[in-house]
Amino acid sequence: SLGKVTPVKSQSPCGACPYFATIAAWEGSHAIRNGALVDASEQRLLSCTTGTCSGWSLTGAANEMVANGTATEAAYPYVASNTACNASALTPYNAINTARVNGWTPTVDEIQQAICDHGPIATAVNASPIFQAYGSGIFNEFNNPVSSSGAPSINHFVALVGWSDSQGGYWIAKNSW
């Protein structure tokens, strides 16, 4: 993914992770397919859909990229709030389609193949308190003491930009925190 992913951005206090994950996946795919890295606008997806800073869905964000596209970050900068849609902003960048990797439960091999075939992919994760406290290095929640009150909830979206098979294997994720 070297040279195919824009720098990590901060969603600030706004729960805009669906837009950040969707844009990160689109940016990487666009860079691989077109040889040009575009810094695209998450705010355009946030402001011009029914989503809010309280979140939305990856499916909704991806469908918006197909139907209406987005602007560049420079043309429609991120302000981390629910602002009215600037309908006059040009949206020259759109996705050609959306897809899931083998429905809801892809295998590791299927996810890796999707990254090879299409570039970064947006995915859902459980952002547990331990995940939220993560700072750097390889994160492995199973190696940390966890107090759990039931099944983990899916409450955050990131873009998987790669993986490594070393040290037991791990995903490389672009996270918008």
What is the strand and helix layout of this fold?
Blueprint: H1 17-34, H2 42-47, H3 58-67, H4 108-118, E1 121-125, H5 129-133, E2 156-164, E3 170-174
Antiparallel strand pairs: 1-2, 2-3
Helix pairs in contact: 1-3
Detailed description of the structure:
The structure is a single chain. This protein is α+β, with helices and mostly antiparallel strands and 177 residues long. It is built from 5 helices and 3 strands. It has helices at residues 17-34, 42-47, 58-67, 108-118, 129-133; strands at residues 121-125, 156-164, 170-174. A 3-stranded antiparallel beta sheet has the order 1-2-3, sandwiched between helices.
Quick structural overview:
This protein is of the alpha+beta class and 177 residues long.
Q: What value does the average pLDDT take?
A: 88
Number of strands: 3
State the major sheet.
3 strands, antiparallel
Helix content percent band = 25-40%
Uncertain spans: none
The class by helix and strand makeup works out as: alpha+beta
Radius of gyration: 16 Å
Q: Provide the β-strand percentage band.
A: 5-15%
Keywords:
alpha+beta, 177 residues, 5 helices
